[in-house]
């Protein structure tokens, strides 16, 4: 039996997030976008009301929410401002490898750090020369005695300028391709860790994105996550768990664009009637609404599989690809509904269109998602493998 009924707790969580997005995010979203400044006050409030670190288990101070509940929250935050929503949710990307592959001591130390104070962590995988081709990374981790020494640079790191620690992927076997990658926890305050620059971005300008360098950074061997040379597997397992939330944020953004376009179409008069009375606009609105609805259903399915302890690689890629592409299409159509006014910063939808683009790029481009979908479809036996619990 398929049941899309939410529990009372899930409804309350969604309402909490919606209220936060309405009162704390929306009123300042366009100001932070114009100035590209860090929304410190919004981040502080999000931590205080419990909208951060949603999947950290209770034993480490978190609420231990299921993945579907997390997606309900992320859709509302994406509706409020996807840039702020990305920063609020980003701890989840950094902490998931720790939760999957970290020792008990590592989990207690670093996960509790995020729940005891409003601190941030960042996920460091992408490099200037290694984006979709993770095996091309040049950052290295050399074991010397009971320590690893890390050297390299990571780019496009969300919350990088403000993080207290980083989950860093590095080559421990330079000749083994993706089978020579390992993952580590690296504290921000260690010698040799440098925040190089903050990027000036097209969209999601309220979200901090930075380049981080590691120059002879020494970390204890116990900061290794999982087994040596198993970091690629750990990264892929992490993305399976985080892509539903990213897809939910894209859905929230698209929903916002749909609502703005619908409201404007009812008010804007051309040829003596509101443009909502014209079939050309009605068809656009109808297609936008379908894309938002279908995106949400894909998100819920991919999250629900995780909550059942099942493998969701195919479904999470479906959700990420479709929700990201739909967000770009819906926001572009919203600008079209506004006509010339949609191109003016005084009106809300041009920001949404700029914000939408990154969903097709981060946490796996839409083209990478298609590769995953093709692989899983052509080799369907892979799709029934159970989700692994540890690395």
Shape: globular
Q: What is the tally of beta strands? A: 10
Q: Supply the CATH architecture of the largest domain.
A: Up-down Bundle
Determine the CATH superfamily of the largest domain: Butyryl-CoA Dehydrogenase, subunit A, domain 3
Our count of helices gives 10
Strand % is 15-25%
State Rg.
21 Å
Strand line-up across the major sheet: 1-4-5-8
Q: What is the topology?
A:
Layout: H1 8-35, H2 40-49, H3 67-89, H4 91-101, H5 104-116, E1 121-124, E2 140-144, E3 147-158, E4 165-171, E5 181-187, E6 193-198, E7 209-220, E8 224-225, H6 231-267, E9 269-270, E10 273-274, H7 279-307, H8 313-338, H9 349-356, H10 366-378
Parallel strand pairs: 1-4
Antiparallel strand pairs: 2-3, 3-7, 4-5, 5-8, 6-7, 9-10
Helix pairs in contact: 1-3, 3-6, 4-5, 4-6, 6-7, 6-8, 6-9, 7-8, 8-9, 8-10
Commentary on this structure:
The chain is of the alpha+beta class. It has three domains: 8-115, Acyl-CoA dehydrogenase/oxidase, N-terminal domain (Butyryl-Coa Dehydrogenase, subunit A, domain 1), CATH 1.10.540; 120-231, Butyryl-CoA Dehydrogenase, subunit A, domain 2, CATH 2.40.110; 239-384, Butyryl-CoA Dehydrogenase, subunit A, domain 3 (Up-down Bundle), CATH 1.20.140. 51% of the residues lie in helices and 15% in strands. It contains ten helices and ten strands. The protein has helices at 8-35, 40-49, 67-89, 91-101, 104-116, 231-267, 279-307, 313-338, 349-356, 366-378; strands spanning 121-124, 140-144, 147-158, 165-171, 181-187, 193-198, 209-220, 224-225, 269-270, 273-274. The strands form three sheets. It has a four-stranded mixed beta sheet with strand order 1-4-5-8. Strands 2-3-7-6 form a four-stranded antiparallel beta sheet, with no helix packed on it. A hairpin with a 2-residue loop joins strand 9 (269-270) and strand 10. Helix 7 (279-307) runs antiparallel to helix 8. Mean pLDDT is 95; it is low at 383-391.
